[in-house]
C-alpha cells in the first residue's frame, strides 16, 4: 500500500508541474485516503499487540 501512496504522490507532483490541477487533486486525494487507511491499520495492529501482552 505504501507503494501506491508513493506512486500517487509522484503523479500528483508531476500533474501539478504540468498544469493539470484536476488530476493533481485527484491523485493527492487518493494518496490522502490511502495514508488514512494505513494509519488506521497500523494503530489496530499496535493496539492488538498491546492487548495480547
From TrEMBL:
InterPro entries: DUF1328. Belongs to the UPF0391 family. It comes from the Bacteria. The chain crosses the membrane at residues 34-52. It is found in: Cell membrane. It comes from Mesorhizobium robiniae. Its main location: membrane. This is UPF0391 membrane protein ABID19_002233. It is a single-pass membrane protein. Keywords: Cell membrane, Membrane, Transmembrane, Transmembrane helix.
